[in-house]
Amino acid sequence: MVASALAVFVGLVVLLLVVVVSMSVKIIPQNHAGIVERLGRYRTSLSSGPHLIIPFLDRVRYRVDQREQVVSFPPQGVITEDNLTVEIDTVIYFTVNDAVAATYEIVSYIDAIHQLTMTTVRNIIGGMTLEHTLTSRDQINRTLGAELDAATARWGIKVNQVELKSIDPPPTIIDAMEKQMRADRDKRAAILTAEGERQSAILTAEGEKQSSILKAEGEKQSAILSAEGERQAAILRAQGEGRAIETVFQAIHNGNADQKLLSYQYLQTLPKIASGENASTWIIPAELTKALGTLGGAIGDVPVDSGGSRREVDLDEEIVDEVPIASEDTSSAVEEAIKAARQAESPVARPDDDEGAPAEDHPTA
């Protein structure tokens, strides 16, 4: 009996020692903090690793995780400045820096952060239009993070980052936004098309302008060259005609032409006068015929050999003025021809005729 009782006592003592040791030794994991209370009051905080406490008096009341935590809150309806309701889904990244404050300053810091996030988001989004809200995510994130960090600092919590995971407008607004987006894209496409056509028209006009300028310049140069050519041709023709006249004149003077040659050339010229396009009828006055007959008779009395020069005309030789010497017979014949022509023109005798004789008394050829 005594042995059995002793064995039971020893067992109880050992069990008590095990319980005491287990209650005295506490192991805190890495990046965690233990809050030790003694008889219901805060005593100390335990960092990571093994620790000894007084059993039955001290106990680890809370174990606080000091790693960065991520909390995603469900979407909440928020009204914008233009009275449109949008669903905001937020994500909070935070760290517990002060385990004691997080334990004793707030009952549930997760719920507190949730409620604080919703109220802050409503304040921020309420002063922004829907379009501004959709295009200002970064601004909202920075503003919301700064306000939450300032509000949770007294709880020993550091808000590292806030992200708006989604902003969902109503379906009708989404449809209207899609239509607006399509309209804007169509507008930009039309503007770009019009701008392209404008640039094309400008380039085409510039090309036509340059082409017209070049064409006008070409026509100008062509007209100038044509006028220059015509001027040169006219000058050359005039010079040629002048040279021909000078040559004929030189040939006449160098050849010492007599009255027979001149009369013969005069008679050859008469058919040319009658051969004009408008000269269908040519009337020769009787007085002119009589004068020509008298001239022909006078010319017939001129000797055949007038003593003119028979040398060949040199066109390149300088022109030398020579006074033609006419024979006395030729001079008298010419005077008789001229007198006969005057008589043919005025058959009535004039006071200034030679010796006052009538016209019919003059000799005729």
Automatic annotation (TrEMBL):
Q: List the record's Gene Ontology CC terms alphabetically.
A: plasma membrane; side of membrane
Against SUPFAM superfamilies, the record matches this protein to: Band 7/SPFH domain
Q: Pfam families per the record? A: Band_7
Q: List every stretch annotated Disordered.
A: 324-365
Span of domain Band: 23-181
Q: Which InterPro entries match?
A: Band7/mec-2_domain, Band_7, Band_7/SPFH_dom_sf, Stomatin_HflK_fam
Q: Which domain of life is it from?
A: Bacteria
The record's comment on protein family reads: Belongs to the band 7/mec-2 family.
Q: What is this protein called?
A: SPFH/Band 7/PHB domain protein
